[in-house]
Amino acid sequence: MVCEAERISALQGIEGVCAVIVMHDELPCRLIETLRPAFFIVGPDYRQVPLPIADAVCHSLNLVGCQPIVCNDVKTTSSSQIYARRNHIP
Fold first, then answer.
1. Angle between the 79-86 and 4-12 helix axes, to the nearest 10 degrees?
2. Taking the model in full, what pTM does it have?
């Protein structure tokens, strides 16, 4: 398992990433409403999120006009995989 600091470092090294925020809330709603991002990008596992949670997140996204994007290939979007590729770990 990759530690939090290593994940942060790997994500910060990606071109186009302007900030990495470690969130400790159960839901990202408060963060979405505070930062007001243009996009909310999640992996394919997000499709399995229980409906009440998905509804709460969708409400926050709609409130700020944020476009949700679900990435289909977890291997190219997983921070663990990004870290491993960056550090040449098989």
1. 70
2. 0.63
